[in-house]
Amino acid sequence: MPDRRTFLKSSLASAVAALMGTGLAQAAESSLLGSVIYTAEHTGKWAQKEGSHAPEINVDGAKITIRTNHPMSPKHFIVRHTLVLSDGSVLGSKTFSGTDPEAVSIYELPKGYSGMLIATSFCNLHDFWMTETRI
To answer: Does pTM surpass 0.70?
Structure first.
């Protein structure tokens, strides 16, 4: 059996890919939202955690900044950001440690890109969060 990190990466990547075609709004009835994947609208057992766990996406031309407004400490921190394009391809990801001052990652969009973006944020205590935007 693969280690926990490998299992989570492959399982959650598959879940994101499954939701990509329909978008979060249409996938709201999916059993994944609010139980495995959390959003600001589908907080599940993590009600009231969305402000510090759902990633924020800022688009400035071709520059995309993902920020999770979450305190960072060795015992409780954002582990990783990932940015996924509408075709399901991963544009990039960044792994954090509990000693990083903040959870911020920056990516550059392919020239002329338009479509959906999904940003993910994984907290070591409060699971996997997603935010989507269309550009």
So the answer is: yes
